[in-house]
Amino acid sequence: MAGGSAAHRRPPAAPIAERIELLPGERLVATARFDLDRDLHFTEGWLALTDRRLLGDNPASADGATESPDGLHAWLLDEASCLDVRVRGGVGRIELSCAGQVLARWLFTPAQAKPIHVLEDAFDQRNTRRRAPASHGEPLPGGPPLSDTIPAEDAPSAPPAPHPRFAGAEIDDEDPVGDAQASWRSLLRILAFARPNAGMALLGFGLSLAGTVAALVPPYLTMPLVDRVLIPRQAGEDVPFALVWWYLGGLVAAALVAWLLSWAQTWVLAWVSERVSADLRVRTYSHMQALSLDFFAAKRTGDLMSRISNDTDQINNFLSLNLIGFLSDTMLVLLTAAVLAWMNPLLALVTLAPFPLVVWLVYAVRERLRRGFSRSNIAWAEVSSVLADTIPGIRVVKAFAQETRETDRFRRANDHVLEANDRVNTVWAFFGPLVSLFSEIGLLVVWAAGAWMVFQGSVTVGGLTAFLAYIARFYGRVESMVRMVPAAQRASSSAQRLFEILDCRPTVAEDPHPIRPGRVRGRIEFAGVHFRYGTREILHGIDLVIEPGEMIGLVGASGSGKSTLANLVCRFFDPSSGTVSVDGTDLRRLAVTDYRRNLGCVLQEPLLFFGSVAENIAYGCPDAGPERVVSAARAAGAHGFILGLPNAYDSRIGERGGSLSGGERQRISIARALLVDPAILILDEATSSVDAETEVAIQSAIDRLVTGRTTIAIAHRLSTLRRANRLVVLDAGRIVEIGTHDDLLARDGAYARLYHAQTKASEDTTAAS
Amino acid sequence: MPPPSRLAEPAAWQFIPRPHGRLDVVDASGNLHLDIDLLRAFPISAPLGPVAVVAPDGSELAWIDTIGNLPEPLRGELLRQLSSREFLPVIDRIEAISDSDPAEWTVLTDRGPRRFQVATPDDVERLADGSAFVVDGSGVRYRIAAIAALDFHSRRLLDRTME
Q1: Do B58 and A643 touch (CB under 8 A)?
Q2: Band of the pLDDT at B3, cuts 50, 70, 90?
Q3: Is A263 on the interface with B (CB under 8 A)?
Q4: What ranges do the domains of chain A cover?
Q5: For residue B107, is pLDDT > 90?
Q6: Within a 10 A sphere around the Cβ of B103, how many other Cβ atoms?
Q7: What CATH fold (topology level) applies to the domain A2-131?
Q8: Residue of B80, B84, B140 to mutate, testing the A interface (most A Cβ within 10 Å of its Cβ)
Q9: ipTM reported for the complex surpasses 0.90
Q10: Which site among A33, A35, A38, A40 would you substitute to test the B interface, given the most B Cβ atoms closer than 10 Å to its Cβ?
Q11: A5, A587, A727 from A539: Cα distances, Å
Q12: Is A61 on the interface with B (CB under 8 A)?
């Protein structure tokens, strides 16, 4: 509904259909609303088209209107009447004129565009019907069918699919049953990321230490409170009540100090851990950007996304909530044990008896939990993968009516999460309460031993009270330490997944002492180039020299190695043997990013990023000013349609190019390549995703683009390569023919066969239509 | 496509305002172009930068590199013409933003009150200079000149959309 957002605070004007007074025999054809007045302020008004008149509320400007009895302005229409609708710069204008004389003008926002275009179409049909009175078409009561005013939306261009041939990666993929030691090692590695904030981390540790000590004070004060005040008082001794105040004051002070310390500690630790995980995210992402294409070919987008977002978050939680808590718990447990031993060694020994059992339990359960969380993380990554797959591919899903199947696929992935979590929960559900049981038993043991000792007179009631208070704290801390175990295992499995990325080395390695090429001339030489992936050999010894400024067309069947050859020039991969050199220097000796600044690429699917048109054109050169952006767009033949967008060069285009057509997106990507003024240009099926007519429009842009640059063009449609100086025909990874179009046709070889097959196919389609 | 003639001598071009908000132009060689349009090429990032002079059919008649550099009174006249044909309401106050999806905004603008829907958080764009743009479901753009200058209520609502 185009008008859905136009709801107004003022009482809306009644629909015109309710107000209009039709002349005898007059028929209402279409109505529409306008929402701007002459000063471009919001207003509310209606337009109505009948078979004789155009009526409307207050126009922005008007001439020659007759005020009709219903309070509307009305114009009688005749054959010279003309209705013109134009939308520019975010304002729509509808203009009624007669023989070149403007009669009335209304203004509207794009929110009303659709119904107004419908009204315009109805107006045009009315005119045609008048001119052809024989027409017997009965006008539709609600106006003619909706005109399609929305720009044709082409298939969304998914991010360039990773080369399927280069599946597999440097690193082994997840191994859920890894070395137990690895989990602690990866947690320790995380701590290295805290180094820039070591000061704050130490402060946090100090605070938690102080907090621990402060927490030990209150039970110690209860002992004299009971023994020196309460019990003597009960025994009839005269104890001043002031002493109670004194001890209570101490308890309050200790509680306040403990509260202040834990407040500061929580804040400091959260601060540090946010920074550690933020740093981890950025480092992982920037490392990933540096990795070669084959890494991305082997990984699933959703999995990588989940590693960078979900896994860093797990680590953050662990650091802020659990890690220092664990350290302070350990200290408290040790200190309490020391205090207990100092107060009464025998009672302490009895109390701590169940403790080794707890330690053993933790040890036993840890490995199970780690494995469980590892599975759970993998299952989560699977869920994100399904999302990352199907959301960009939603058109395919819908076109093939596979919504149910994709939902099932999602449900299956989700079930894996459920199953993995169930397994962890089973272990945890049994284990958690068991530890509670042990601590209860510990407490009972103290009560029993303590009661016996009070009877024996070897301990005071106050001493026992303090002991019980300590022991409650002790097992409370033990429990929370135990609870830390799953959190630590979860974090360590997340940490491992991150380090898998961080430990990955780019296969296209930068030379330790690279040559900075600056601007290259563009002489490309392949010398005995073989390229192998796994056991498959894709290129079998390519020898080819491309002169500066020459345009080479690569021709051949799918899988003949055309794209691989282009990828080698981009240095997305290195050859298995042989060399690719530019201006006589082996590509491997050149600084990768410096060299790539000399490259321009126009790919089959022009990937545009979320941002304005200008930002997309200036992607390779963000400092470029408006003049360069505009001149690149002009040369690419994109300037005209960009001016027509609501905010011209500042219009935002979505992640997949949104409202632009395939040809328009391609012209923007050509402008993007033109702006960097590349010495070497790669055209990989640049026109194969657009129709023949758009191709003609793009072709002239491409012609301008290739002038004076070394160009490697790949195309199935041989007509695209008409400007190529030489055509190189590849077959199964070998060069079979080189020559101009005419040479190759005369030779009557592989190229001639391809060419005749294509011309015949296109003749067939023309004949068929 | 031949490059459009530059307004090398902008003073030699004569812009003639007509009734009904129309604008005609007589170019340097004396040709009259009826009902032309002026379009800023960078209405947001460089409003005083390039401006295209466009014929009714959308084809470009001329290109002004920097409108800000034109001599007066031409500059003033063109800026007046531009402002009368550009629509970019400025949000002065945000009354309410619903929790629904899409969110419904109720705002006060310099062009009057308005209620509209915002499809995704991406449609609210904060710029580095402290201003912001909001695009509603039908493609109408709204500007917030300075977020810091909004009242507390509006800012709180706006902040909530950024979560």
Answers
A1: yes
A2: very low
A3: no
A4: 2-131, 276-502
A5: yes
A6: 20
A7: PH-domain like (2.30.29)
A8: B140
A9: no
A10: A40
A11: 58, 17, 18
A12: yes
